[in-house]
Structure formats: structure tokens, C-alpha cells
Amino acid sequence: RLTIFFSESKNFLTNTKLTIDRCLFIARLFNDSWEQYFWRLTEYYLYEYGIIDENSNRQLSLLSSYDLLLDSKTFEQIQLERTIRRDIKSLASSSSINHCIDSYIVLKQIDRAVQLLLDTDPNDDTYALNCIKACLISSMQKQSNETSKNTVTKLVATNLIANGKVDEGVQLLCTIDLCAEACRYLQDHNQWERSIWLAKLRLKSNSQEYTDVIKRWSEHIRNYSQTSKMNSALILISCGQFRRAIEVLHNQGATELAIRLFVCCKQFGIDDGTIGEKLFDDYMDLMGSFGFTSIANDYRTTVVV
Question: For residue range 88-105, what is the model confidence (pLDDT) as tens digits?
């Protein structure tokens, strides 16, 4: 059986043209959970952002466990389903209801958000405030004077945020579609994951605003995380910033992983031709320290940097 297994493995690795397929195969073979996670994500976004003829119709999807690394469309569908389930199951829990209200506003399900605000228990301390908020949000959807509405609302929102009422201020900014600004405020107040949650739901994934929010999160992870600096590369891959992801991996000492990602990008037409030389120079030094200089040189020649 081992002979058959080795023969089949060799046959697959020899005949598979795409490096990404080899990387996934090896990760599964050695049961390396982190690399499986990394290469599944990379495969998905290579097909999303890259250009390739072979297997171009391959149907790919990511598990919901990828959460904030999911594409915006999938993420929005999952969040709406979760919010509806939470709404149905909520047993008058104040925190659960507030979470639903916040989610419905961001998801542009304004009618349901207003209804939940109006359904606040009269004995609750937030009853009067929620009724006023319901009136405000409802009336804002019907105003014709956009300039006047936006100016006043933005002023109120920024004042709320400045006085520590970040959640309320962000909600107001979302109602007038100033979501990129809301994301920046959340990040300034160290609410990083919530800022990405908002960006995924309200910013266009191909916009510079969206990319800036994601890149800022990646830099925060890289600079301040003590245990998951490599996740910075995953974040960058999820918004198509492959070159920067390669640089992060390289700078973190994961040169071999960076090389494989570089080769994958090259095969998918994602390559500006300016990063390969330095990367392979360091790879040659690394392999040379283990006595494998000739192998590294052959690999470099094959890739043709």
C-alpha cells in the first residue's frame, strides 16, 4: 500500500502544473493545518484576482470559519443569516437585541432595525433614547435634502464619537453612507475587527477605501500582535495585495513560503517583476546554509525570475 501511495503521490506532483495544487497537496500530506488554511485562502483569491486559462471554471468556496477573510459577498450573506437567527432566538436580551439593531442598520435592513428600537421595553432605561433614535433613523431615510441631512448627521455623529459614544456615532455615519469614515473612527478607537466587519458589509471590495482599511488592519497585526504576525499576510491576500503579502512573509523570515507564494502569483499573472530578484537571492543564501545551493539555483532557473 505504501508503494502505491508513494507512486500516486509522485505521479500527482509530477503531472500537476500549478504550484498552488502542489502546495495544498503537500500541506494535506503532512497534515499541516496552518499551511492548509493558508493555501486554501490563497487558492481562492488567486482565482479571484488572477488570470489563468487552466481550470478557470473551477468552483471554489471558503468555509465560514475564515470569517473576516471571506470575500465581501459571502461575508454579507453569512452576517445577514446570523443576524436573522439571532433576532429570532433573542429572548429580550438587551445585548442581543442591540447587536441585531446594529447589524440591521449596517446591512441596510432599516425597517427591522427601527421596529426593534420601537419594541424596547418601556421599563428599560434606554426606552426613550431608542424611540428617539427610531424616529431619527426613519426620518433620515425620507429626507430629500441630502446636503442638509448629511451635514447635521455627521456633526452629531462626530460629537458622539468624541465624547466616547462610538457605537452611536458609527451607527449615524452608516445611515448617511459615510462608512469609510466610520471604519477609520473604529480603528482609531482600537475596534479593529469591527472596522473590518463594517468594511466587508458596506465598502466596495474593489475600492481604494476598502483596501486602505484592510491594509491598515494588516499593519496593526504585524506591528502589535505577539502571536499571529503571519496572519498579516493572510489579511493582505484576502484583498488582493499579494506583493505586500510576499514582502511580509519574507520580512518575517518565512522565505521559503514567500517563494512559493511568489511562484503561484507568477503562474496566475500576478507579478510586477520587481520583487523576485531579492527574494531568490535570500532563498539561495538560505538553501546554501543547508548545502543545497545547486538545487536552489536549478529552481530559480526553472522559475525564471
Answer: 886 657 888 889 999 999
